[in-house]
Amino acid sequence: MRMCLNDAGKRFNRDWIFRHVDLEIHAGRRYALTGHNGSGKSTLLQLIGGMITPSEGSRSIENQGKALEEDTAYREISFCAPYLELIEEMTGMESLRFHQGFKPLRDEHTPASILEAVGLQKAADKQVRHYSSGMKQRLKLAQAFFADTALLLLDEPCTNLDRTGIALYQTLLATCTEGRIVVIASNDETEYEGADTILSMDAWKK
């Protein structure tokens, strides 16, 4: 997979968040987006993932040399962020099964094996609304890492995780990303350790 931004910019009202972004990212590489709070890391990550559109410039994405249409590209993209909401009336098991209906799972995993991998097997039949903030973040990571997608986008992925949860995240990063594009928006080196390329938002502030 390859994703390109060509002279892309994003503004809200009259305020530009960033401008003139020329970026090409490739499969098998890990990228870190860094910058101070409010610099636009999350906005750029959402633009890369197609959740928002650029105010200027363009975005293109292709897989195996073929351009992907916007209405089908989402199947190749996983996104994890603390501000994304889970369906709290579902149980952990139901949440993963629901997610599986949109994106197949990697490496012959099942919802049960994924919950075990992220330490949530005992809470499989508990409604998500009764999960702690750390448990919810583990479930979000599970949905992102174990979906069979080519592009993995992580926004401050260790939010709400304790030391054990951070170790789990680092294990997932080491074992579930081969051949994928990984883009991590963070200022914490713990979250993007081992990144091939570090991209600073300062380069696109105009």
Question: Any overview of this molecule?
Answer:
It is a single chain. By secondary structure, the protein is of the alpha/beta class. The chain has a single domain (2-204), classed as 3-Layer(aba) Sandwich (Rossmann fold), CATH 3.40.50. Helix content is 29%, strand content 27%. The chain has helices at residues 41-49, 70-73, 92-100, 111-117, 133-145, 163-175, 189-192; strands spanning 2-12, 15-26, 30-34, 56-63, 66-67, 77-80, 151-155, 181-185, 197-200. A hairpin with a 2-residue loop joins strand 1 (2-12) and strand 2. The longest helix is centred in the C-terminal third of the chain and has 13 residues, at 133-145. The chain is globular and about 50 Å long. It starts with a strand and ends in a 6-residue tail after the last strand.
Give the number of DSSP strands.
9
Give the second-level CATH assignment, the architecture: 3-Layer(aba) Sandwich
- Give the overall form: globular
Name of the top-level CATH class = Alpha Beta
Order of helices and strands: EEEHEEHEHHHEHEHE
Give helix % range: 25-40%
Distance between the termini: 30 Å
Brief account:
By secondary structure, the protein is an alpha/beta fold. The protein is built from seven helices and nine strands.
Main traits of this protein?
206 residues; alpha/beta; Rossmann fold; four-stranded antiparallel beta sheet
Topology (SSEs and partners):
Layout: E1 2-12, E2 15-26, E3 30-34, H1 41-49, E4 56-63, E5 66-67, H2 70-73, E6 77-80, H3 92-100, H4 111-117, H5 133-145, E7 151-155, H6 163-175, E8 181-185, H7 189-192, E9 197-200
Parallel strand pairs: 3-8, 3-9, 6-7, 7-8
Antiparallel strand pairs: 1-2, 1-4, 4-5
Helix pairs in contact: 5-6
